[in-house]
Structure formats: structure tokens, C-alpha cells
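To close the section, here is one more complete example, presented without commentary so you can practise reading it yourself. The ligand is 4'-deoxy-4'-aminopyridoxal-5'-phosphate.
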Amino acid sequence: MNHNQTLSLAPTGRRDAFIAEYGRHFGARRVELIVKSGRWMVEDHAEGAHIVDTDGRRYLDFFVSSGVFNLGHRHPAIMARMRAALETREFGNLLYFSEPKGELARLLARSAPGGLEVVLPTVSGSEAIDLALKLAMGFTGRQGVIHFDNSYHGSTGYSTAMGPSAVRSWAGIENRAFRQLPYGDIAALRGALDEGIAAVVVEPVRSNFDGLDPGPAFFAELRRLCDATGALMIVDEVVTGMGRLGTLWGAEHNRITPDIMVAAKGLSGGVFPLGAVLMRPAIIDCWTDHPYRSFSTYAWSNVGVEVAIAALEETRKILPAANAAGGLLEEALGILRRRHPGKITSVRRVGLIFAIDFNPERLRALEFATALYGRGVIIPPAAISMPTSPIARLLPPLILAREHVEEFLDKADDALGTLG
Ligand code: PMP
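Output:
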């Protein structure tokens, strides 16, 4: 198949008609910036590894909304479970239990690294991070938080306090109790953890920037320091979980034993928002004065819970094939590196997360993303904290197959030929 047909980004039919009709409702200036980026679409439908826009353009999805579509789009088992659930289920009352909620909590607890028996429901990842921090503060009676540079944990209160400095300052949520350290730096950890720290928030691999893998020694030392000071280790598995690192949870990859684990995105099966906070049982006991110290009306709809159960089952099944297909994509990146000497300096892979380091003198991740976009491939745009980054990332769906790798290779090869 010839994948090299360049898609026209000239003004065309329905995409532009959409902007003329609705653009102002999304903020005219904001929409102008989005359109100018060259990477935008009006989605129409999606299936498997592809999204089709309203003008009939087909895009290979190597972005997957950073993990929402880990099983691809409209996975048959997910859709079947959702349809079946809709026959009898609804959200359910925010205060009550249900059998599927029990089953999901048990499945999550059994799948997670040791001892995280208690599971609280949320809608989103940001909300789960905030809840995890509130629990850590309640449990320890402290407010200090350590987080790491070039990491992203969400867009609500505490999660924003760990985000890009531009957002922190205009939102007025610079929090002096929050301290940022260089990711993976053991010496910095040793100097920063003390009896004022409630929690350290960390990803198993730095997913939103460079795919950096600090390795098990970093997490072993972090565990030791948390135990010594009484700080809790909160692992953010929003992106690294649900198979992304080639294991169900990223914690397995780096042999991490957290006190609290946060999951979201992939649990949604791509069709129903759902997050979770898992913890050691002792932690929730800071709430025994009141069982609803923090709750969320739309957390764990009974429909979404059925979907999440199916998503866990399917992810487990698909992992061996996904890891094998990841090997093919790694080979393809090696081919690109050899064919375009001087442009790509290195390539990293952990499971199904890939990072390409470009020579910053030659090109940036955004240029590559835009050139791919014009050819019908979407990849994560760039690190939120660093839009000029020379590091591009690929997050293919776990249903990755040889034909997707070939499509990517043809189009990326063509794009790189015109860049740098
Ligand atoms: N943690 C990480 C690592 C994330 O990438 C994100 C979102 N991309 C979040 C937390 C927040 O999740 P949500 O967007 O569902 O609030």
C-alpha cells in the first residue's frame, strides 16, 4: 500500500465550515491558534487504530489521547460490554455500592502492586491525583509535596500546583509547600525528603516529556526515604498504567511498591471516563470520623465500571502481542534513524511508549508532528511544559499490528525527507 499521499490541508469543506459555524464558542483567538498549529481536526468516527475526520481524512492514531485509547477505538469487547450494561444499568447513586463496583475494586486491588487493598472512585486522573494528595495530607498531618520536573499530573487544584509554571502563576496556585526535583535524581531526593513531606508524586517513567526510565534503583531509594521519613509514595499510573509500559501497571516494570496508586485514562476503555485511587488500608482510616470526606457525584457510573472491568480483561489478554508489535515499531525507528543521519540522535522505548530525540539544530518535535499530521498520522503534540522540545513521543495503541508499523514508517520516512 502506498501511504505517502500527502493530505491537503488547504481550506476544505466541512472542517472549515465547522470553524465558521462554531469557532467563536470555543474562543475565537484560541481557535485561531489551534488552526494555525496545522494539527487539528473535526472528528467524525474512529475504529481500531484510526480516526476519520468529517472530510473523510483517515489518521493513524499514535497519540491515543495519552492512553485513553490503549485498546484502540471502539474495541469490540468494550462496545459489547457497554451495550449490555446499558440494558440494565445507569450511574447509580453516589452514596451506594453495587456488585460491579465491588468486582472492579477487587480486580484493581488484585492487579496492583502489593497491599493496595482499598480503592476510591473518581471520574478523571486530575481528580484522582487531588484525592490522593488530600489523603496523604490527612493521613500524615503534613502538607509538603515533592514532585518532578517536566511531569504532568493534571489540571485541577493540587495537580495544577505540580504543573507548568505559566499555569501555576496565572491561576494563583503557586504552593510553597510543593517542591519540584529533577526526575530520577537520587541525590536530590536524599536532600529533600524530611518530616514535613506528606507525599512524593512520581510516574514510573516520565511519560509526558521524554519517556525517561529512572530504573528500579531510583524507586528503591525513594521507598527507603519515604519509610524513613513517613512520607507516602504516590505513583501516577494515569499514562503508564493499563499496559503502556508492557506490563499492566508501570509499577511492575520498575518494581515499585507505592502507598497510593492513581489510575485513569485506559480504564475508560475509550468510552466512559473513570479513575481510581488505590491505597494501603491504613490510609483511608484518617476518614473514619466521616465516610464521605471527599466524594464525586459522577465517579464510577455502573456503566463505566462494567467497561473498566472489560478494559482490564482485554488489556491483560493483549499484552504479549502488544509487546511483540512494539518490537516491530522499535525496528522501524532504527530504520528511520539510519535513513536520516544527523536528524535523529537517539530512540527510546519502554513497552509501548517511544521517544525520538531529534538533533535540536535540525528539527523540533512539533515540526515532525505537523508534517506527520499532513500525512495522516497523529502523535502527541509536544511536552506541555516545553513546546520547543526536540523530543517526539509515540503512544501507539496496544492493538498495534505490522500494517500500522508499515504505515507509520512510510509516512514518517516521507515527512523526515522534507524536514531538517
Ligand atoms: N497524570 C498524568 C501523567 C497525565 O498525563 C494526565 C493527563 N494527561 C493526568 C494525570 C490527568 O488526567 P485527566 O486529564 O484525566 O484529569
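Once you have examined the C-alpha cells, check your reading against these statements. The first helix runs from residue 13 to 22. The two ends are 27 Å apart (CA to CA).
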